[in-house]
Write a structure and sequence with these properties.
The structure is a homodimer.
Chain A: E1 3-8, H1 10-13, H2 21-31, E2 36-42, H3 46-58, E3 62-66, H4 77-84, E4 89-91, H5 93-106, E5 120-122, E6 126-128, E7 137-142, E8 145-150, H6 154-170, E9 178-186, H7 191-197, E10 208-215, E11 218-227, H8 230-248, E12 252-255, H9 260-271, E13 275-279, H10 285-290, E14 300-306, H11 309-316, H12 320-326, H13 331-345, E15 349-355, E16 370-377, E17 380-387, H14 392-413
Parallel strand pairs in A: 1-2, 1-3, 3-8, 13-14, 13-15
Antiparallel strand pairs in A: 4-5, 6-7, 7-8, 9-11, 9-12, 10-11, 15-16, 16-17
């Protein structure tokens, strides 16, 4: 089945927004044994949308269109769809009911009552329900080509794609090809290092591909196998996955969609240990990540963002002398912070970071990027010095990730 | 001039990599008074590349192609370009010299020695030098359509685009068009409300466009004016900008690329006031945003992530009785937290949030999404109740943004 995608929006064509929907659709199709043959992007111009639809329809069995279903005047996709397929644009009662109902439900999320524009749908179409937004999607068949129209809001688009479009298309693929991907999330080594370590694992001629996608500060290794049967796919995928694991060992912190936050949360939950944080240069970034996981209150007690020395002294009981003698960014102060927060919070684990995120503040012997991370636990206190490079935000992110990864490795040992 | 872009690569069509080149080109063209009419992406398939080139050529004066110029077998763009334009693919001596020279220079950067494949260039083309990579770009003219071929590596592509392609095209725009954009960042109202408030400001027939792009939880209003001269553009842009400001008043928190963090930082810096934070449901998100700005240590003293009641009592001095009587998520506790952190930190301002981010924890009269925000200042303490809806993360983000916006409005009043 030849599938094309079309993204609609001036913000995309003018480079104000990066189009992530095209990638999301491509990934999800691949996971279900299909792939995009071609993608197109046009602005909020009715003639351009119509022309793109007709052009793509010429050599596609299905077109997935995102964007331009919003309530505003520059949302023109529904009208263009009607024109391109010789349909009338009419007020759809179901869509209208949905828009009203949804507007009411979302009212507190700063959404106000919308007009009926979003309920204007081409005739002879099937609505695609949107559980989280006001814009209904719809699909139609025109000259043997399925056309799906989804809103451009990524979260809404993703839900509707999975619930309606993917299954609809998957049922129609013949002959069935099985494509499976395995995602391995890696933190630590650089791309070139990983690339070298994984040499020879990919076997494209057999239908086994390996991709490395760097998403600072981590990277995702994608193993994709394509074959005629589940068994054949597994026979390609499993040994390759095993090889990747052996060569990268501790660097793989999660598989699939799990982030390092999820992994640390699971390990903490499982260990029955409680955690408290003392952050200087990360300014709350670690606490924010820990508490992003539902139920974190079961193991996370408190965090102290001790930016000033006074705060380090008062909140964590770091000795004044130590601060004066060694400086706020030092191994001794880091461990004093970790032990301090562990004691005041009465937690099993105390994790502390102190460093120089820059752009200013570097000193002789302690350049910008110098960071100390300390973990205080019942069985001891470990402190380590790191030197990160990059922008202020990159250094902060690397510090938070390294601290979380440290915690992950500690919990795995226990 | 009608300009199209074409990105080539299986990694794009399979969603492993997000295509940033299309956006870079679009942005740079707009900055120089041009715009992309349509964008296309195809995989590493010679027929697909040829078909895309021919199709785009039909209604473009220029096509900018990125990707598929690499050394590996799946880099097919040069050959496809030759086929599509009826040229031969020959070994180009200049390109060959460049590849060898560059390979030698880059050897230290883990680039493997390359063969002559990258020196195979279609006949009747002009090379586009690549100062940082091995792949030469080239451009040619076919049936009145300029075609530019650049490598897909973003950093190389960007350099070559600016040095060669943009100037080449800009010289050929007739009549010269000037395009300017003005970005206004808005937090508070919903898209439909903003759209209604701004009705009639856009005058597409005069070359004045208005776009609304929602990026949860804020939205960006783009005013774009296109005319023959700087003066004519300003004459369109300035009155429109004035009108938008009047109609949206306090909702516009920044222009251009500034985020709400930058604005709050600037206001705090200017006011000479110091800030301390007490966060419950946001778990450090506000502190993390405040400290993301360089120099924040000048006005940010400390933050307390008081997740447990014990922490609220010990770190902030919230009365036990109050917690028992009113509950941790209450107006009284919120103001006690704000006053508490202000006092212990000795800051001018104390900002506190407490709420139920969910998905669990909702109770009778206090459903998930109930949040109290409190600001303690020398001239009083203000506390307000909010009800946000959405996922746990959306509620946390809305809480952080609303608190920062509150702070912004307070500082603007002073």
């Amino acid at each position: 089945m030849r599938i094309s995608t079309l993204s609609v929006g001036d913000e995309l064509i003018c480079g104000e927004t990066t189009d992530t929907n095209a990638g999301t659709i491509a990934t999800m199709l691949v996971e279900h044994g299909m792939r995009v043959q071609r993608h197109m992007t046009v602005g909020d111009s009715e003639p351009d949308i119509i022309e793109a639809l007709l052009e793509l329809a010429r050599n596609s069995d299905a077109i997935i269109v995102t964007g331009g279903l919003g309530p505003t005047a520059d949302d023109l996709t529904a009208r263009a769809a009607a024109r391109a397929t010789g349909r009338r644009l009419v007020l759809n009662d179901h869509a209208r009911a949905h828009v009203r109902d949804m507007s009411a439900r979302l009212a507190s999320l700063l959404v106000c009552p919308l007009n009926d524009k979003q309920a204007m749908i081409p005739t002879k179409t099937t609505l695609i329900p949107n559980p989280t937004g006001t814009a209904c999607g719809f699909h139609l068949m025109n000259n043997g080509c399925f056309m799906f129209f989804l809103p451009g809001v990524p979260s809404e688009m993703r839900l509707m794609l999975r619930s309606s479009v993917i299954t609809f298309l998957a049922d129609r693929i013949t002959p069935k090809r099985v494509i499976r991907s395995l995602l391995l999330n890696v933190f630590g080594p650089c791309e070139a290092e990983v690339d070298e370590l994984l040499t020879g694992i990919a076997r494209p001629e057999l239908g086994l591909r390996l991709g490395i996608c760097v998403t600072f500060p981590w990277m995702r290794i994608t193993l994709r196998a394509e074959a005629d049967s589940e068994d054949a796919v597994e026979a390609l995928l499993q040994p390759a996955a095993q090889a990747v694991r052996e060569r990268l060992q501790g660097y793989i912190y999660a598989t699939g969609e799990d982030g390092i936050d999820d992994v640390v949360a699971e390990l903490l939950q499982g260990s029955g240990r409680t955690l408290a944080l003392a952050e200087s240069c990360t300014g709350g970034m670690i606490a924010q990540r820990i508490t992003s996981i539902p139920g974190s209150s079961r193991y996370f007690l408190e965090g102290a963002v001790t930016y000033s020395n006074e705060a380090k002294i008062r909140q964590l009981g770091v000795p004044v002398a130590l601060l004066e003698e060694k400086g706020a960014v030092s191994s001794d102060v880091a461990s004093a912070m970790a032990k301090g927060i562990r004691q005041v919070a009465g937690s099993d684990l105390g994790l502390a970071v102190t460093g120089i995120a820059g752009p200013d503040g570097g000193v002789e012997g302690k350049p910008v990027g110098t960071v100390f991370i300390s973990l205080a636990a019942p069985d001891g206190c470990w402190t380590k010095r790191f030197l990160f490079s990059g922008s202020r935000e990159e250094i902060r992110i690397l510090t938070a990730w390294t601290a979380l990864d440290w915690l992950r490795r500690y919990l795995l040992m226990k």
